[in-house]
Amino acid sequence: YPGCVHGTCNEPWQCTCEKNWGGLLCDKAEHACVSNPCANGGTCHEVPSGFECHCPAGWSGPTCAKDECASSPCAQGGTCIDMENGFKCLCPPQWTGKTCQIGTNRCASSPCRNGGRCHALLDGFMCECPQGFAGTTCETRKCRQKIVLQHVFSHFNINDCASSPCKNGGTCIDGINSFQCFCPDGWEGSLCDVGECVCGREEGFWGQCEQQHRYTRFREERCHVMLPMSHMS
């Protein structure tokens, strides 16, 4: 014996049915819509198995109690539209699918600027920017920076006088990454390698210095005769 569907069995082949149910096995709906089981404006229709609800747009379920857009099913900023038996998503550009979950060719609109190269991805795109530009769409110009390299000798110093750079008896004074030459009489220059012009009383004449030749490490000069001493008295 199959038993009572919507009721209780007290004796064999005898069912005590629940409210709004009848029949030998309590499987026939009687006035199932009297209690207004359909919510949110749904329309109730009696059927042999009970009732059915015809739900308005945006609602679904056996009693029209389910809000299709309540869970925000549309991704990527899509707009949810309530339908009679479900919902519809209005997707933003470059997105498609029932819930806007499928990306189309994101490079079709050429989003990369300033000569950037677009690479389409499953969830968007990536711009390969040329030199000098950066940003999501290569919209930012980079600033060129001048890099200055500077050696700092604050903790140690080498002896710059070790190679005896001062010539002709000059005295070398070591500094920090530098040196200085103190030259003897008759020599000058940063390395004491330039001869000075020294003129004066010579063989009874007054002289004046005149440069004759100049080389990288030597200068030859002579005294140009001006007047005999007898003419100076």
Automatic annotation (TrEMBL):
GO terms for molecular function: calcium ion binding. It comes from the Eukaryota. InterPro entries: EGF (IPR000742), EGF-like_Ca-bd_dom (IPR001881), EGF-type_Asp/Asn_hydroxyl_site (IPR000152), EGF_Ca-bd_CS (IPR018097), Notch_Cell-Fate_Det (IPR051022). SUPFAM superfamilies: EGF/Laminin. It is found in: Cell membrane. CDD domains: EGF_CA (cd00054). One of its GO terms (biological process) is establishment or maintenance of epithelial cell apical/basal polarity. Disulfide bonds join 91-100, 129-138, 183-192. GO terms for cellular component: plasma membrane; protein-containing complex. Keywords: Calcium, Cell membrane, Developmental protein, Disulfide bond, EGF-like domain, Glycoprotein, Membrane, Metal-binding, Repeat, Signal, Transmembrane, Transmembrane helix. It is a single-pass type I membrane protein. Residues 29-63, 65-101, 103-139, 157-193 form the EGF-like domain. This is EGF-like domain-containing protein. It comes from Lates calcarifer.
